[in-house]
Amino acid sequence: MKDIVIKLQKLNKEIAVMESCTGGYIANAITNIEGASFVFKFGAVTYSNDYKIKMGVSEEVISLYSVYSMECANSMSKSIACYADSSYGIGVTGKLNREDVNNNTGDNNRVYISIYDRENDLFINKELVVTKESRLECKDEVLKEVIILLNKHIKASN
Predict the structure, then answer these.
(1) What residues have CB less than 8 Å from 51, skipping those under 6 apart?
(2) What confidence category does residue 60 fall into, taking pLDDT thresholds of 50, 70 and 90?
(3) Residues 40, 5, 79, 112: is their CA dihedral positive or negative?
(4) What pLDDT is recorded for position 155?
(5) Is residue 104 classed exposed, middle or buried when 0-12, 13-18 and 19+ CB atoms within 10 A define those classes?
(6) In degrees rounded to 5, what are phi and psi of residue 13?
(7) Cα–Cα dist 115/128, whole Å
C-alpha cells in the first residue's frame, strides 16, 4: 500500500473507499501509511443495505442484482468516488465465511472488488473467492488483490 500512496501523491490523485465485508480493512491499510492524509479522502463501512443506499448505491441495483454482485460493487466504487470528489473509488462487497440472514443470495466466500477511475469513467473489476479460514485472513486476501489491481491500473494509466 505504501507504493500506491506514494504514486497517488506524485500524481496528485486521491482515493476513497466504500467497504462492506472488509469492514474498513482497506481504509485502515491506506491510513497506516505516512502521507496518506494527502491522498485518502473518505472511507465508509456499509454493512447494511440501508447504508449502501444512503451512500449512493441504487435500490434498484440491490433489488435486481443483490448486494453480492459486481453491479453493487461498481455502484459502491463510483458512488464513493463522486461523494468524496476523489480520483479513485474502491467498492468491496461479498461474503467472508458466513451466511447473511438479511441477504440470502450470493455464494459464500465470494467477494466483488471494484475500482472506479473517475477521470476516465472506467471500472476495474475482480471477482475473488477467498480461501482462508479466518475473517482477518480473508480480508488480507482481498486487500492484496486490491493492491495488485490498483498498482496495475495506476502504472498503465500514467
Answers:
(1) 44
(2) very high
(3) negative
(4) 81
(5) exposed
(6) -120, 160
(7) 14
Instruction: Name the DSSP class of 133.
Output: S
Element (H, E) at 125: strand 122-129
Please answer whether residues 156 and 39 qualify as being in contact, where contact means their C-beta atoms are separated by less than 8 angstroms. Answer: no
DSSP structural state of residue 44: E
Between 97 and 73, the more confident residue is 73
Query: Which residue type is seen at 52?
Result: K
The grid coordinates of residue 32 equal: 497506516
Phi, psi for residue 120 in degrees, rounded to 5: -105, 5
Q: What is the pTM of this model?
A: 0.93
- Residue 79 sits at the vertex; the CA angle it makes with 144 and 105, to the nearest 5 degrees, is 70
Mean pLDDT of all residues belonging to the chain: 92
Find where cell 500514467 sits: 158
